[in-house]
C-alpha cells in the first residue's frame, strides 16, 4: 500500500460514460461515445472482445443477440461479418421526458460494430484530454491474447508506455486479477483497475492484490459498505465506482469522495456534481 489518499471533492470526480451515453444511445456504438463527449464526459468506458480474426471490438455480451439484429458469439465471427450487423435498431431513441443532448447520430456507420481502434481514434483526435477505461471481457478464453492485442493496439497510438513523468489517459480494467496482472507485465506503467462485484474478505480492509492501486467496486457494495472508500484511501488505493445512475447513488459517491464515477447517464451525473 502507499500513502493515504484524501477524499475527493465533488468537482474533481471524473465522470466516465459507461458503454458511452448508453442510457440514451445504443451502447458501445460510435454514436454513444460521441454523445458522451458532447455531453461533457471526462472519460469513456468500453468492454473489449476479440473477433475470430483477432480484432478487438467493443461489445459487452459474449453474443451479439441482445445489441444487434444478428445472432452468434463474437469470438466465432469475423469483423467483416460483424460489420454487416446493425447495433442500433434494438434501442428506442431517447424520449422527450428528460432533456438530453445528443448530436445527429443517424449517419452511416454510427450504429455499426465499433472497433477499439476507431474508438481510440475518436479519443486521441478529441480536443480535450479524454480518459479511457477499457475492460477486458472473459480473458481466460484466449489465454493472454486479449491483453497482447490490446497492448499492441495501444502502443500504435502511443498510449501503452507513457514517458517518465507522463500518464496515459488509458487504464485497463477487469474482474479477472489474472488479466490485470498480464496487463501490468506487458505495460508496467499503465494504470489498471481490479473490478469487484463483491469484496473478498482479505480485501475488506481496503487493500488490493500486490501491484493493483485502483479498486472498481459496484455501487451496490458501497450502499452496504460505505466505509470501504475511506479504507481503500487509507491504504493509498483509489476507488472507481460503477454503475452510478440514480441521484441517491451519485450523492453517496460524492459524500464518500470516490475517485471516479462510471455511469450510463454522464449528463445527469455532471449536472448533479454541479458541472452541468
Ligand atoms: O465499469 C465496470 C462495469 O462495466 C462492469 O460491469 O457488466 O457493465 O461490464 P459490466
Ligand atoms: Ca464494462
Automatic annotation (TrEMBL):
<protein>
    <submittedName>
        <fullName>Glycerophosphodiester phosphodiesterase</fullName>
    </submittedName>
</protein>
<feature type="domain" description="GP-PDE">
    <location>
        <begin position="13"/>
        <end position="273"/>
    </location>
</feature>
Amino acid at each position: 500500500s502507499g500513502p493515504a489518499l484524501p477524499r475527493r471533492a465533488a468537482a474533481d470526480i471524473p465522470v466516465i460514460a459507461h458503454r458511452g451515453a448508453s442510457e440514451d444511445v445504443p451502447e458501445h456504438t460510435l454514436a454513444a461515445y460521441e454523445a458522451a463527449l458532447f455531453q461533457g464526459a471526462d472519460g469513456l468506458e468500453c468492454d473489449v472482445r476479440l473477433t475470430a480474426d483477432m480484432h478487438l471490438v467493443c461489445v459487452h455480451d459474449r453474443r451479439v443477440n441482445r445489441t444487434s439484429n444478428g445472432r452468434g458469439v463474437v469470438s466465432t465471427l469475423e469483423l467483416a461479418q460483424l460489420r454487416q450487423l446493425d447495433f442500433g435498431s434494438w434501442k428506442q431513441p431517447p424520449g422527450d421526458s428528460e432533456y438530453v443532448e445528443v448530436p445527429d447520430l443517424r449517419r452511416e456507420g454510427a450504429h455499426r460494430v465499433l472497433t477499439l481502434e476507431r474508438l481510440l481514434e475518436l479519443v486521441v483526435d478529441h480536443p480535450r484530454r479524454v480518459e479511457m477505461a477499457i475492460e477486458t471481457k472473459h480473458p481466460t478464453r484466449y489465454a493472454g491474447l486479449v491483453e497482447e492485442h490490446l497492448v499492441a493496439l495501444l502502443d500504435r497510438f502511443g498510449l501503452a508506455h507513457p514517458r517518465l513523468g507522463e500518464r496515459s489517459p488509458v487504464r485497463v480494467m477487469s474482474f479477472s486479477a489474472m488479466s490485470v496482472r498480464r496487463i501490468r507485465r506487458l505495460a508496467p506503467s499503465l494504470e489498471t483497475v481490479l473490478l469487484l462485484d463483491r469484496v473478498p474478505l482479505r480485501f475488506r480492509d481496503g487493500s488490493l492484490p500486490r501491484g493493483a492501486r485502483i479498486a472498481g467496486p459496484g455501487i451496490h457494495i458501497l450502499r452496504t459498505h460505505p466505509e470501504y472508500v475511506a479504507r481503500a484511501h487509507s491504504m493509498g488505493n483509489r476507488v472507481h465506482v460503477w454503475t452510478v445512475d440514480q441521484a441517491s447513488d451519485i450523492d453517496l459517491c460524492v459524500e464518500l469522495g470516490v475517485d471516479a464515477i462510471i455511469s450510463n447517464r454522464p449528463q445527469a451525473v455532471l449536472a448533479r456534481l454541479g458541472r452541468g
